[in-house]
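Consider what follows.

. . .
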Amino acid sequence: MRIGTTALGLKPKWRFGFVKPGLVVSPTRGTVYLDVGGQLCPGIIDQHQNGSLARSTTELIVRHPDLVYEHLLGPWLDRRDAGVDLSASNFEPLLVTHVEPDFDAMVSCWLVQRLIEDGDLPPSAEAWMNYGALVDQGRYMVNLDKPTSATEAIHIAYLAIQHLGIKEPTQRLGLGFALIDCVMAHLTQARGHLYGLRVEELFPAVLRTQADLQTPQARAQAAATAAWRNDPRFEKARILIDADLEKYQRDKRAASIRQVSLPTEDGRSEVKVNVFIAADKMESALSKYWVRADGCPYFICPVEPIQAGVSPRVILSLDPSWVDPDSGRKPTLRGLGFRLEQAECQARAGRPELDRGLPPRYPDGTCDNADPWYDGRGHEHTIVDAPRSKTVLSYETITRMGTSAFWEVGLKRAEVLIALPLDKPAQDRALHPWVSPPKYSEATPCFARFIEASKEANYTPESGLKVDDSLPTGMERIAYKIRRMPITESPDFALLKFRSGDDDKPTLEDLVRFLAALHVKHDGRVYSVVNVQFEEGAAAICDRETLLGRLCPDAGVWQEHSDDLILCNGRIIAVNETCPIADEVRSRRLLELMVYVAFQIETLQTYSAEIVKVLDKSRGSGGDALRRGFLTFHASYVHQDIVFNGEAREMYAKLHDSLRIGDLHTKTIEDLERLAELEVRRGEKKTNLLLFIVGLTGLVEAGTTDFFAVPPFQLILVVLAIVASIIVYWVMTRNTDKPGELTSGDKGA
């Protein structure tokens, strides 16, 4: 059980220090760093280096109180256990937080004082933890139709205190502590105790539900949270808040409000968002809350006045609670801090007086200095903030980058290999002579025979197969070929190869748009390999899976193989290569694997379509020819081991499984067997028909030997017998044309 300084006889004299945000420090005896320090350990409580640790510093204190308690009081407890009288000792703990301490930092300092002096956190700690997290993560929502949601809020009262012009930060903190103590005193009086206090009980009454305000005691508790407004210590703050909405209206008239696109959290789509771009430093102290309540989730605002086109500090923030009403997806600013840091480095290049020191604040390669742009990693990428040493970028540059496609991923190198099935004979699209493709040294004998049996010729641009028109900037055509397959059941293919140049570079999104346009133009019959190397720091924009997933928006099957990531989705294969893009051996390997996969799929689909045609015929056959052709195809050109190279074998095995080529083969074989069964039934039907005719002839002959001598009733019986025979024959043979449910049929057609 913990004991505090009161029980120990110590009289703490609290001291406060203030440092620049983002400072990374080591533990110091007698000192606790709050909301700064860059780590979570005894004496340092900070979550900005890893947003998954907690929502706020306040939450870290509640979850890990011993990191504070043992660090400050551990040595004193040892002295007490040794028999030392502590009553006359001088205890001056130091709490260090960032300059201009925000609500989270202030509440954290208050909780530490309570923990050390009382020996435990107060009963209201959980409520303050959740309140602080809502504020720190920007999730507290102000309602413009209910102004008291702002004017009575505790954290907004503290925000107003920060704007009263009090120069001494310790004095501002002291007023913040007094604000909490004031609210706690009135809540204790209304409730009788603070145990079980919920975060909602700290909100203004206008945000409570009717169920929370049914009893006089509940209404008294609601009024207690706004009791600070009647305290003379906070009168100036109250006046500032009450006049702030009018200031916001003036700021709004000078601002620019428009709609921009932002990426979604999964990185695979975009949503439209209203952005509020302040013209200069906002006059309103509560601008963030008014802006979000006014329907603008995205807010770009100078924190300091603009001079000569530059504001030393600019914050770009996104309402973390906002969700696109149409798609239900949330936007993100991930990648913006990285882009701004790149621009910042370029602007500072060659100016040693602007060096920002070492070591890098983030060890993941996204920055090379100790004071980069904050990218929002501790706030779910919903806020981007300028360096502590102030930015040298112009405000126009920052707003332009913040409203452009900052999330698009640059490519150091890119190669695109495409196979397009041709509906018409290849002879009309190629220049002769037709020759065998170059030998492929990695091919096994059976695969080598397939390549040798194919023919290749140069592409004729006048054939109408236009692809260059939609090529991304920075991509150039390397080769156009026509590949004729060895069997007529497979279409011929146009083989296209593009590669990025040395100057302009495409983005990953450029390739996505290019391939998407090809899929639309060619009804989805596009086989492609995208071989890319991402720009350095691409992980700051989105994770590796998402990067490759952008090439396949429907997120098909992806598998990882050593350093290469193969992603298969229908007709798209994306490979992230670690070797040079210009490696012709690997490029040829990818091309031949793609062509072979395309050949199998297209051939199997052709057989499926032909089987459906035969099955749909009421007469005739054709199944024998299909079976013979399929057996020839299967025996000559279907192989599992097609290359000697181990990496290529694994690639093909994964492609084969991912694209379910084996299932296509199995279903085609099953359909051919059903076709054979149908043809047997049709043969039996013809035999039965012949026997029926013979029997019916005998019946008529027997019943009408002497037609004119046959009584009328006997003729009627003969006619009825004939009709009955026809009905029985129809009933017995009506199902012989039904082959049963197809296993591929219309699915593969």
User: Anything to note?
Assistant: The longest strand covers residues 411-422. The chain has four domains: 5-242, 244-402, 411-649, 672-748. The two ends are 74 Å apart (CA to CA). The longest helix spans residues 661-703.
